[in-house]
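Hi! If you just cloned this repository, the fastest way to understand the data is to look at a raw example. We've pasted two of them here, unedited. The first protein comes first, obviously.
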Amino acid sequence: MSLRDIYETGFDEDDGKSINQTCCIECGGSLQTEGGETACTECGLVLSDCRIDYGATPLSFEDEESNRKQTGAPITPARHDRGISSEIGRYRDANGTVLSSAKRRQVRRFRREHNRARWSSKKERNLATACLEIARLTSALELPHSVRERASTYYRSASSDDLIQGRSIEAMVAACVYAACRCGGYTRQIDEVAAVAHCDQQALTNCYGLLNKELGLKALVPTPKTLLPRLLAAFDIPETVQYRATELADVATEAGTANGCRPAGVAAACLYLASTEAECALRQTDIASVAGTSPVTLRKRYTELREETADR
């Protein structure tokens, strides 16, 4: 009989974690597991990738024949009908038999009436349009499916509270996507979302403020450390500079240098100071452009951070 715990090296289906390691083997950063993939939150190293197939499994009993029928896709808020609507085919029936010409015309009429009766109100039709727009935005921003579902949930809540009336659907959809990024911990700036959305940045900002006020969003506060990976990915720099920039971000947070300052400016200063110490050729204008701040702000935060590190 084994003396160890049965789940010591097993797979936990609740969180998708497949390893017992608590820190990154490269940089010592914290690990995050999502969808069966365990990766470092600082350097992005993927330590484990083991996914579970949650599809339906055919049931079989001793006194009955095996049932090979499968259920459909799981219910998801990312679709206006939650993915449970029926779809009428075109050329073949359920058994794979080719339909005759008369049957095709009949099926075409069925499909036309089915599309007309799919939405019982204009509100549902607008929800279908919003779900398609959310899917487009999340795909353009390269966001995971969890953000798409969260944004769809926010839009449904806003629609049920009558927050859509008098406002643009495109602006409210972009605000929901940005809110899903803020609540999910994904570092997407509001100008990045506005760049791919069919609305201006001011309309997006107004709608996000409305959602934050009425729905009580639990948005995560961005820190210099959470914004650093986006900056590090934009420049070809050695790993030692990346680790040093992460250390400087921790120093800025612990010393209070980042208090009352824009996190993007502090993150840009951390990267510039780390590159200066390693004698890497990075310009202030390039770093400030990627961080979405000005070179003047970068120099101010750089001076404060350099004075703080000099005392240590």
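Ok, and the second one:
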Amino acid sequence: MKKALRAYAPASIGNVSLGFDVLGAALAPINGSRLGDEVDICAADAFSLTVKGPFAHKLPGDVDSNIVTKCYYYFCEQMELTGRAVSPVALTLHKNLPIGSGLGSSASSIVAAFAALNDYFDAPFSEDTLLHMMGELEGQISGSIHYDNVAPCYQGGMTLMTGAKEPVTLSLPLNPNWYYAICYSGISVSTAQARDILPKQVDMATALTFGRQLGVFVHALHTENFDLAASVMKDVIAEPYRKSLLPGFDDARAFSESEGALAFGISGSGPTVFAVCNSSEQAARIARYLNDNYIQNQDGFSHVCQIPKSGTVVSPLTEHSDA
């Protein structure tokens, strides 16, 4: 009997403030809970997709328009192009991440789907090939191909995009003593909307600042000069424009800085924000403030996270697995 599997793909921070479209980081709550989407796969007579989870109702009711369905058919196309056989499967998407949250919600669904399919069909595609496939499908939602969510979601850690066909990413060193207070406000900001608000060009001074900060950051991580790394975690490209979409952003930043946060910024396109902290206690204080003051409705939440070394996990699905 063919195996049944579940793929878990974690939430992620796109850009990490200073690395617009070229830097991303996976997220893992320190309390051990999972923050990410899951996709189950098992044998079937015909393809089907079932959608469950706390944010399933936010997705289109037509499963043919669901990005996981598109992942399945794109995977089948690529298998056929390489002369490999595909059999029908039943997929279940557990939609645990809010849509338009800035936590890599669409990336999480896409990565979990491709990881489940690739493992189920005995790993026909390499990591870089899968990343290209994931980026292609992510681009259908956001309007442009970028890897700052799909890459860390799939690979874990903090990843730097190379712009090359392979390797697609480079893994950056992590500071095990950094904690991230993250808060989703509950409102939705589409990636396309958040990109439209940005200028089409940046001036020379801004471009030089962006390049300098990213270079210093990468060097500082490799030399374990983490104070220097934190000092350049400032978004000069997107935040000046995108913060207008986020009610309470300036107050949240001011409180975080008053508590000694090393950096504060927008996760991806927002509205989720994050504060980089030197201790779990400091992160917990900031998370409590954000929970009480930044959240706009009942969908919002906050977590204290770290960046996990591992990303997507595929494991056997048993009869005892949660529904």
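That's it. A detail worth noticing about the second one: The chain has two domains: 5-173+309-316, 179-306.
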